[in-house]
Amino acid sequence: MNPNTAPFNFYTSIFYDAIAPPHRPEQAHVIADSLTLNSVKIEWVPSENGDVPETFTLLWKEGNIPYWNAITIPSPTTSFYLQGLAPGKKYEVKITAENIAGKSN
């Protein structure tokens, strides 16, 4: 060690803010007064995710068809008009969330 310099301590702080994949959005529901012959409005409540930006994926399919249609919706949007539906058909709808850490279940 050089006698002309004093020893010093070097400290560093590391802040680690763990980010986890979001939970699935909650309370997804159809807005009853939005129903038309071929469209419906779907709304949901985002899960608490610590203010990490997320996107939502709305998936829908006609009941007996094996493939899903999907559209990605950025936050803070929490509703979507699903259009092009056929009258008298049964549809399944689900919604997922995604952030930089991954997708919801």
From TrEMBL:
Lineage: superkingdom: Eukaryota
Q: Which residues form the Fibronectin type-III domain?
A: 21-105
Identify one Pfam family in the record.
fn3
Which residue ranges traverse the bilayer?
none
Q: Which InterPro entries match?
A: FN3_dom, FN3_sf, Ig-like_fold
Please report the name of this protein according to its UniProt entry: Fibronectin type-III domain-containing protein
What are the leading ranks of the lineage?
A: Eukaryota, Metazoa, Spiralia, Lophotrochozoa, Mollusca
